[in-house]
Amino acid sequence: MAGRDPFGVYVHIPFCTKRCDYCAFATWTDRFYLADAYVRACQAEVASAVAAGMSPASSVFFGGGTPSLLHPRQLAAILAVVPRQPGAEVTVECNPETVDAAKLTGYRDAGATRLSFGVQSMAPHVLAALGREHDVPSVQRAVSAASAAGLAGSYSVDLIFGGVGESGADWAATVSAVLALDPPPAHVSAYGLTVEPGTPLAADPARHPDPDDQAEKYLMADELLGAGGLEWYEISNWARPGAECRHNQLYWAQGQYRGIGCAAHSHAVGRPDGASSDAVGRPDGASRWWNVRTPERYVRAVEAGESPKAAGEELDAATCRIEALQLALRTRQGVPEEALSGWADDPVLATLVEPGPTGRLVLTLRGRLLANEVALRLEP
Predict the structure, then answer these.
(1) Cα(213)–Cα(295) distance, rounded to whole angstroms?
(2) pLDDT band for position 4 (cuts 50, 70, 90)
(3) Which of 362, 367, 338 has the alpha carbon at shortest distance from 351?
(4) Considering its fold, how many domains does the chain have in total?
């Protein structure tokens, strides 16, 4: 990929067999009959973007929803029309109960290089409280299927902490069990449970997470994952060296990406069509836009030859600069020292950031817990 600007393609797959109580994503449990038409619409949207000058992708990410509900031929049909740079990373999000060796082998043959398993917990009662459909044994079965497909070396596990009924011991056991998977994951994402407006979780205050409990569990996760050989590289993400998610790194670097599918978002610097530009990374303004939310509206628009774009916004240089700092602050690359001038003389800030790469400041472990407070002090 030398000499090529990073460029991401995100493909949204909006189908699920069940909606979890905490989920506010654009997903539906009753629309899978649209799957083939939806795949064709995604192909058409990609073709339109390529005709407008879209760059070859350095990373492709199938998110959702539950992308692993797609048959390998459906995933292959979309990937076949996405131009990719040599060595591009291609990630497919999977629910453990939806995969087997044959399906994952089909994904690999289609071009997938990385799997992301939505595990959330390894405690049965916590899985039930979160509304997950898989059980604990299905996680190892999914990992074994990944191994049989030749993808075990690059799989990731997503976890959620802070759900109702989850004790500290439950959470420690979850992280330890994930590290004990055979083979162990190369990457772990651990997110505090969040309450999204309009969800069943939001309507039930008795199930809302406690921030102090979540802080303790974050510290526990960092200690256990670090001891297991995974280093933090973004507040909610840990990886073995070289196994960082390149697609997500593109987001955190304020890079360019094109969203395909309903509710998918795109970001372009300098050119509104999402094509590659020498302006990548420069704080001189950008464009964001997003597609219509429901799959039937998306399919209908594309089949009619219309743009599926719902709305967008133009970002001025000042907005781009502050957003770039806010994103960088979350990573172990940190921000330039001048973005937090006087930090060493501030008794509070001096406990939240520390010197990192030359001329930059990174969050301390305590700072990661209070990242939003630090972000308020950034000076663009």
Answers:
(1) 38
(2) confident
(3) 367
(4) 2
The range of the structural domain enclosing residue 365 comes to 322-375
* Six-digit token string for 246: 């390149």
Give 190-217 pLDDT, tens digit per residue. 999 999 999 999 999 999 999 999 999 9
Q: Give the model's pLDDT for residue 281.
A: 40
Q: Count CA atoms within 13 Å of residue 307 on its CB side.
A: 11
The residues, ordered by sequence, that sit 6+ positions from 48 with a Cβ below 8 Å of its Cβ are none
211 contacts: CB under 8 Å, gap ≥ 6: none
Burial of 86 (0-12, 13-18, 19+ CB in 10 A): exposed
CA angle 157/30/14 to nearest 5° reads 40
CATH of the domain at 100: 3.20.20.70
Cα–Cα distance, 315 to 103 (Å, whole number): 41
295 domain residue, yes or no: no
CB 295 within 8 A of CB 317: no
pTM of the model: 0.95
Q: Are strands 187-192 and 114-120 parallel, antiparallel or unpaired?
A: unpaired
Domain identity same for 243 and 334: no
| Identity at 355, one-letter amino acid code | P
